[in-house]
Write a structure and sequence with these properties.
By secondary structure, the chain is mainly α. The protein has one domain (18-234, 248-447): Growth Hormone, Chain: A. 78% of the residues lie in helices and 0% in strands.
């Protein structure tokens, strides 16, 4: 059985429970490993911005550190897709998670030893992004190798559901951990009174952040163990061999031409890129600054908002899994994409004008719900539509469309936040609403039915 796309007659019709895919041992291992490692990654994603802010107090530095991680990710994603098609997705995932385990463990040691410096954070962020570039294409490409095509949407929903549940729980746990171990409120009050305790305050904060990084390292260990145990059932023999840089570039070109010749794919990739440019910077850079400067709960508010994104995504993903046999994935995209863009645009505007945690968290919940449902449907549609020998390259191109512009978004938002905490959110919200209107008016999204793979 291959990961080739479905013909119309092959579309899922089963009314069996989506949870039946959990009987597949390989799928269970992937599900557990990804859920645990994603939970740990949330500790990293909360601790790193807080560490940069506490070391430098600069929003531009925060944006540049986070943005630097996206540079190798964007530059090498397509190479990661080629290697996924040439070798084993499981092999690339295992190598990537082993590298990230070493990096985040090193970061925990440096923080607890009070040896962390900003240049080290730039270096480790770059290396972390390098490992990411080889992980994400393989993650999406491995699913058709462990599940038959009728189970893909249920499998995508369950894996992304546990990941989003981890995203929902992880940030609030990490924020509370840093706040409690770091003694944020006491430190702030002491410093405001001019008390001579700055070094103690620094040490307490560093202990909480170091613990968050250590937890992430432990979760990567779990993922490495589960990946080593997976044995794909539907892997195909590789059709080409890579002998030189020229052959790598030719493989990348083949994948890009496949997208360019398909008007529906071109449109969807363009929408994904626009949402990444306009939305990722405000969330990843703007929300921690917003929590630090406008919301009274500080790091706990940061965790609450990010957890609401995750919880909303869980709800959307669960709904997508329940409806996995109702209609083909492509039949829903022309409605889902404009709707998700509309929710995201309105949510960004709320982030810009709200002064308390509740409306911001509620908006994050709604945004996460719309995106979670849409991502499951979109991923399944792409897996069904893509020829098996192009699966890794298609997934790398989609991930590139999503993450390729994140560094630019983060740098721009980091610079704008030096002037105003409202401006980046309001601009992003208005422009995303414009994308929603365009997506609703274009006819290309009505051409998203499944096609026969060549």
């Amino acid at each position: 059985m291959s990961g080739a796309s479905l013909t119309p007659g092959d579309e899922p019709r089963s009314r069996s429970s989506p949870l039946q895919v959990l009987w597949e041992p390989n799928f269970r291992l992937l599900w557990v490993g990804e859920g645990v490692s994603t939970l740990g990654t949330q500790f990293y994603l909360i601790a790193l911005p807080w560490l940069v802010l506490k070391l430098t107090g600069s929003t531009f530095t925060l944006g540049s550190v986070l943005g630097l991680a996206g540079v190798p990710r964007a530059l090498l994603l397509l190479v990661g897709g080629v290697l996924t098609d040439q070798f084993s997705p499981r092999m690339l995932m295992l190598a990537s998670n082993t590298a990230r385990l070493v990096l985040v463990a090193l970061l925990a040691v440096l923080v607890i030893a009070r040896s962390v410096e900003i240049w080290l954070l730039y270096t480790l962020a770059f290396l972390f992004g390098l490992a990411d570039a080889f992980f994400y294409p393989a993650l999406f490409a491995i699913m058709p190798q462990i599940l038959d095509k009728r189970s893909l949407q249920s499998g995508n929903a369950i894996v992304q559901g546990i990941s989003q549940l981890s995203i929902a729980a992880g940030p609030v746990l990490a924020g509370l951990l840093i706040a409690m171990v770091g003694g944020t409120s006491v430190d702030t009050q002491s410093l405001a009174r001019g008390a001579a305790l700055p070094q103690k305050a620094y040490e307490l904060r560093m202990e909480g952040i170091a613990l968050a990084f250590a937890i992430n390292a432990l979760t990567f260990m779990v993922s490495v163990f589960t990946l080593r145990a997976i044995r794909p059932r539907y892997a195909e023999a590789r059709k080409t061999e890579l002998h030189s840089i020229t052959s790598v570039m030719s493989s990348i070109k083949e994948g890009m031409l496949h997208v360019w010749r398909d008007s529906a794919l071109r449109t969807i990739f363009a929408i994904a890129a626009a949402l990444s440019l306009l939305g990722e910077g405000p969330v990843l850079v703007g929300v921690p600054v917003l929590a630090d400067t406008r919301l009274p709960e500080g790091p706990a508010a940061f965790g609450i908002v990010m957890s609401c994104f995750g919880l909303g995504s869980v709800l959307g993903i669960v709904l997508a899994g329940i409806r996995s046999g109702s209609r083909s994935a492509g039949q829903r995209l022309y409605v889902l994409l404009p709707s998700a863009c509309g929710l995201m645009g309105l949510g960004m505007i709320t982030f810009g004008i709200a002064t308390s945690t509740f409306p911001i968290a509620l908006s994050a919940l709604a945004m996460g719900g719309g995106l979670g449902y849409t991502i499951v449907v979109l991923t399944t549609w792409l897996q069904q539509r893509t020829p098996a020998h192009l699966m890794g390259r298609m997934m790398s191109l989609m991930v590139l469309a999503v993450v390729g512009l994140i560094p630019v978004s983060q740098l721009l938002v980091g610079a704008m936040l030096e002037l105003s905490t409202q401006f980046p959110f309001l601009v992003a919200g208005v422009l995303i609403l414009a994308v929603a209107v365009w997506a609703a008016r274009t006819s290309n999204l009505r051409l998203t039915g499944p096609i026969q793979a060549l």
